[in-house]
Structures are given as structure tokens and as C-alpha cells.
């Protein structure tokens, strides 16, 4: 469906318009205020005119088929009016009223009725339960708030929000950016976020797309739209609060329990270069950064201040959120101190107060970091506001001219920013003067700096895709085709071993004599477990005995496990015993794969072994992995510190762990259609270069996984 009649209509019919008020009147007033030159048709059988405009008794009486019909009426009346709109050839509609799908069954029925009418007629619809659409550059609006200053709204940010309040929020502060289109999409009965994003990607007025999303309704199209936006060089900034529409099916593995759709959605955004933010503060800072003529080309940020205290505060915050603030190199420091005098700390943040010669020191500090290869964005941190009550008034514009001079002289055309310590606090004269030079004011030592980081990441794009580490294996494919819902530890490990993963030495046997014989071959101490496709979590059943040092302990464990299995409601036909080497050394980590019904497979990695579900310290990536993903996943968990050299203990073999994660990723991707969940828990990462060993494994296939 083409969106033009909806987003830039040339004629607007308003059903239910009255002089008395309501959205209909607000839209008519706003159409006047914004300078709309097309036709406006109030429709209401009660009045000959509304706001001195000829009013029509019914949609069928209109002199032409309108581009858009706006329904300023209560929901029970809408289906009948929709039929008339379709009959009159209306090309699109906006429905403000609530009381539809958001209320459950009856509302959903009403919504479906309207949606099918519209779909049949090929009509895009905004809403229901929405505020409409504002198109400042095209001078047209169906947005139900009154417009006071249309010129001040025009800009390059395209907003698509499933919540009207977020539109109100973003439109309430247009000091640093304006709007190319603002869509309050509501329940999206027909036209959806992805449709609007697609429109904005092709819209020449739009430079950046800001979205607030509770529900992604067509995951494949959504992902494709994100990719297209990235290719078009338009960042998509996303606040997400909900998840995907389909519910999660029953989960067997621990990994499945961790990878809730909200985390997966975040990974999806990352994998498709959307910029996720947590709130409107963070979002507005990213939108502000996008207004700069130059965007950061990488993540390295230098913050220059005249204050030691601020430098410390910023450093603490930056460290907590993982910003890249490279210190001055030795040469840079020498050059800086030659002019400025002594510099405290490592020079980032760069407290350029030194000998106190402000007018010389600050530009010199900027010149030094401008030359650094590791710095992609340069901020000068200085506070003022619209109503300064203290400080030298001249400083306000002096700071701007210092920054504009530095920006003009920048060797590599780096972007410069004026940073205020608080988000949202700024001085309009500075904002305007900076804008004239293509520069922007950002705010908040967290939000403002994080916006630079986000844009730097965005500019760098994605890592290249990764060469495979393991060859596809026909035997494994055969196993997946066998129709088992769950593959037990023993068989799962054979499959994983075929992909190059090291697993414990072990044997699957049934009698005590065989158990004892196997233990002799493997060597004590050993581990004894009962295995079956029906034992997903063996410890819970009491069928794992570790560190058995001799035949006595082994026989005793055998008796105990046998008894446990005998006590089960029914002994599974495939029940057997697993004798395996006991891996005493190493750090326990886990890796796993799970499937999101909308976004497919993802890989999780974490430390903490059995405590993982309580601790939830894990990294997640959608499959397939890209270059460097496994190493990054390992580094980003808090527990990763355990893998390093701790208290005299040798560091663990992280390299082989990364290789193991890549192999698992290949394994899952090769059988993407068959894999539902995989748990490798634990994997033991040995010290030095001794590798890592998969100690337990569970594979759940999709053959019978349900939906
Ligand atoms: P579950 O099905 O309950 O996850 P596991 O096979 O993972 O059973 O065993 C439970 C725990 O016992 C593991 O998390 C690990 O700490 C320990 N364990 C199991 N097998 C071994 C082994 N071969 N070497 C060392 N520890 C083991
Ligand atoms: Mg386990």
C-alpha cells in the first residue's frame, strides 16, 4: 500500500468535526496554522459549517474522493463510517479513538472489522488508538494536538511511535532538531511501524528515524527495513518496551530460559545496526548528535574540561557504561604540558586548566586530541543555561567560537561538541550559534557521551562475517533427522565432537561389570551418570555422582543411581549409565543456543555454571556470529574475570573457548531448521593452553517442539 495519501494528503475529510472541540476541530485549526493548501471537508449532519468551512452531511456527499478521512467519532460508529469512506473512494484513514484491540476480545473484533474493510479497499490506516500524523515539510497534519509554531517544527527526524505520549514527548523539545514526519501509529490495525520506516528510508526530508516500539508485527520485514535503513545511511534509533507478538513456547534448556525475547530483540537491533536507547533522554541526545554536519566515525571520545572534579565524575560514569575514552599518549601529553602545564590523571577527561590560561590552554588541548588517531569525537564540557544567573556573559559565545575555530581547523574533520553536564539543560544562543556552524550541543555526562558512543558504533558498522571453523557433517545431520525430541548427553556429545569440540572421555554401558571395566579404561577418578533422552536435568533426578576415586565408591554410586532410576514412574527404555573422566581442573562456563519464535537462533555464553539462571550474567548474539563475536561475548560477561589470572592461578584457555563457541555456532547454523535449544553446561575451561572440555550437553530438536 502506498502511504502518500496518509502521510502527505492533499485533501482531508474530518468526520465528526464540530466547532465545540475535539480532535476534529484541533486538526482543522492545525491545518490552518501549518499552511495547508489542499481541501478540508468537515463532515457532520448537524451543521452547515464548521469553523466557517462548508460542512457535508455525509462522506458520500463530498465533492471529491478525499486522500484521507479523519474519524473524530467514538469507536462504535466507526465501522459504518468506514464503509461510507470506502464507498466514496477515500484513499486512507486516521482513527483516534481507543477501545479496540488494546481492550481485548470485543475491541479486537471491532478493530478486525475495520481492518478488513481497509485491506480490501487497499487503504492504509493510522491507528486506531493514536494521535495521527504530522508532516511539517509538506505542511499538512492529521495530528490531534494544536500546532502553535509550524516553522519551528520542521526538521529531519522521522518519528514512528506506537505510543502517542512519546510523540508528545519528542515534539515538546525542538531546540536542537526538527521533524520531517511524526507518526503516532497506535494499534497499527493496518499500517505498521515497518511501513512507516520503509517510507522514511525513501523520504528525502528524513535523515534519522526515531521509533518507540512495543510490538514488532512482521519480524522479517522489520529486519529487512533495518538493513535498508543502515544501507541508506539513516540511523534507526529505537526505544523498545515490549517484545514480539508471538508467545514463547515451553522451554526445556537453561539457555532457553535465559534468552527471553526482550534480550533477543536487543541483539536483533544490534545485529541490524539499529541504535537502541533506554529512554527519551538518551534518544534526544542521539537525535541531536545526528544534527551535526560531521558524525563520529568511531567510538573514541575525548572530553576536555577546565575542572578536575568534573573530569573525575565523567571518568567514573564513562567507565561504568563502557565508553572508549583513550588516555593521552606519552607524546601527546608532553606536547600538551609544554603549553598548559601539569595535567592531572591520564588526560581523558582532559582537565586543561593547568596554569590557568584558559584562552590558550583549551584550544591547545583541542589541537592535541584532534591529532590523535584514537579520538573520533571531541567534547568541551561547560555548563550554562537559558537563564544564566552567574558567570561572565561573554563566555557563552566565546565557547562557541572556540569550538567552531577548532572544528574548522580539524585536520581529519572530526566532530566537536559542547557538552553540558545535565541532559536537557542548554543555552539557546549557544545552540543556535553552534548550529550555524554545523555543530551541536549535547547534554548529560551519561546520555550525551553515550550518544557519541552509539553514533560511533553505528558509523563503524558491523564486523565482517566470519569464516567457518568446522565442516558440515552428514552424520550429525542424520541424527537431527532421526526425529528425537531430546538428545541425551552421550549422543549430543558425539554430535558436537564431530564439529571439533572436545568432550569428556566416556563410555555408555548398562551393567555394573561394564561400568567397572569402563572406569579402569578411563582411569580414576571418574563420574557416573544415568543417561536417557528423558533425563534433561540429571542432578534434579539425583543421578550424577562425581569424583569417584576407586571401585568401591563407583559400585556404591552405581547402586544408588540404579535405585533412583528404579524409583522413577517408568524406567525409560533407553536408560543407561555413563562413565566419564572427572575433570577436576578448570573454570565452569556455559554456552547454549535457543530459538526465538520471531528472530531465530541465538547463542548465549556465561559463567556461573548451575547458578546462571539466578545470576543471569551472560552475553547473547544472534546467529550466525560475526568476526570477533565470541571473544567479545566472553569479555562482556562480568564473570569473565574468573577466566583471567586470578590470585596466582594461571589464566584459562580463552582462545580455545572462543573456538568452541564458534564451533557451536556453526553446528547450530548448519542445522538451523532442526535446532530448538542446546545447552553445554558446564564447559570446563582449562588453564594455560590445555583447551576446554564439554562436560555436559543437551540438544532439543524442533521435530516435535510444538509452537
Ligand atoms: P545436569 O544434567 O544436572 O546438568 P551434569 O552432567 O551437568 O548434570 O552434572 C552436574 C554437575 O556435576 C556439573 O555442573 C559439574 O559441576 C559436575 N560434573 C558433571 N560431570 C563432570 C565431570 N565429568 N567432571 C567434573 N565435573 C562434572
Ligand atoms: Mg549440566
Oligomeric state? single chain
The chain-level mean pLDDT equals: 93
Distance between the termini: 31 Å
Bound molecules: adenosine-5'-diphosphate, magnesium ion
Which band does the percent of strand residues land in? 15-25%
Shape: flat
Total strand segments:
30
Notes on the protein architecture:
- The protein has 707 residues and is an alpha/beta fold.
- Helices cover 36% and strands 21% of the residues.
- The chain is built from 25 helices and 30 strands.
- It has a 7-stranded mixed β-sheet with strand order 9-8-11-10-12-13-14, sandwiched between helices. Strands 20, 25, 26, 27, 28, 29 and 30 form a 7-stranded antiparallel β-sheet that branches.
- Helix 3 runs parallel beside helix 4 (105-121).
- The longest helix has 17 residues, at 105-121.
- 51% of the residues are buried.
- Residues 243-248 have low confidence and may be disordered.
- Bound molecules: adenosine-5'-diphosphate and magnesium ion.
